Automatic annotation (TrEMBL):
PANTHER family with a match to the protein in the record: GLYCOSYLTRANSFERASE, GLYCOSYLTRANSFERASE 2-LIKE DOMAIN-CONTAINING PROTEIN
SUPFAM superfamilies documented for this protein: Nucleotide-diphospho-sugar transferases
CDD domains for the chain: Glyco_tranf_GTA_type (cd00761)
One Pfam family recorded for the sequence: Glycos_transf_2
TM stretches of this protein: 237-260
GO molecular function: transferase activity
Protein name per UniProt: Glycosyl transferase 2 family protein
Keyword list, A-Z: Membrane, Transferase, Transmembrane, Transmembrane helix
Length: 278
């Protein structure tokens, strides 16, 4: 079983070094890394040349910006049996690829698996599913994030490219949920995907502070979530239910005197509504 890892990157160096180190530390070696470079300079050339001596690595340039656009370019080059989409600021724990290979080899009925994430100190964000379970259109929001998705090649061949209007750098208001959209499309084709509660990847937690930058980023994410719910034809009763918990979070934050957090959650709800209405 060969892995093809499609990594889109722009503006980062140290974080990418961390990922490359974690990838080189994997005991499972049957993989290729396709780095889709959206930088306007050569900051990665020497780094990637060095790692090309350690494992199979392809470095391609992307003229157009956007993570979905970059992933689609990478998908044109993959030749593995399992495809994944690591972020340029995530990193893999020891033994991850072996674990994924073991699960998929042991369960040929599964078309893909997903996991959760923590940062280097064990912190996380969001509400993850509590146990391993098959994904459906309602629990998928708590059972996957882009860099934790591992799909068999047959899924990619049928579902096709990512929606390039979604995701970071797309040039639209919909700055997230491109991976969830891809999973929803996969589910519509009848593919069987499973969340593995004991599969944990690593990524920085970005909502520990609620300053202006965090609010701006979250609004793009939430607008993307609302948009993906709408284009995937969720029933109208479902959307207000998804907003209710966040609204309760606003009230709890206000009651506790955490006005920055209350504002953060309030703006999140408004952005999700904009995405849904659009």
């Amino acid at each position: 079983m060969k892995f093809s890892l499609v990594l889109a990157t722009v503006g980062r160096f140290d974080e990418l070094v961390r990922f490359l180190e974690s990838l080189d530390a994997q005991d499972y070696r049957n993989f290729e890394l396709i780095v889709v470079d959206q930088n306007g300079d050569d900051r990665l050339v020497a780094l990637l040349r060095r790692y090309r001596q350690k494992f199979s690595l392809r470095h391609v340039r992307a003229l157009a910006r956007g993570v979905s656009c970059a992933r689609n370019l990478g998908l044109e080059l993959v030749d593995g049996d399992v495809i994944a989409f690591p972020d340029d600021d995530c990193w893999y724990p020891a033994g991850l690829l072996q674990k994924v290979a073991t699960v998929l080899n042991s369960h040929p009925e599964l078309d893909g698996i997903t996991g959760r994430f923590t940062d280097g100190d064990g912190n996380t964000e969001g509400r993850w599913l509590e146990s391993s379970v098959l994904l459906n259109r309602y629990n998928v929001w708590r059972g996957a994030i882009e860099f934790s998705i591992f799909l068999r090649r047959r899924v990619i061949d049928v579902v096709g490219p990512f929606d390039e209007t979604l995701g970071v750098g797309a040039g639209t208001a919909w700055g997230a949920a491109e991976g969830t959209d891809y999973l929803l499309r996969s589910l519509r084709y009848g593919f069987k995907l499973k969340f593995m509660a004991d599969m944990t990847l690593h990524h920085p937690v970005k909502t520990s502070h609620f300053d202006a930058n965090a609010c701006n980023r979250q609004q793009k994410y939430e607008a993307g979530i609302g948009r993906v719910m709408r284009i995937n034809h969720y029933p109208f009763w479902y959307f207000p239910i998804t907003c209710m918990r966040t609204c309760c979070g606003v009230l709890v934050a206000l009651a506790g005197g955490n006005f920055l957090k209350a504002r953060f959650k309030y703006l999140s709800v408004l952005a999700r509504m904009r995405g849904w209405r659009a």
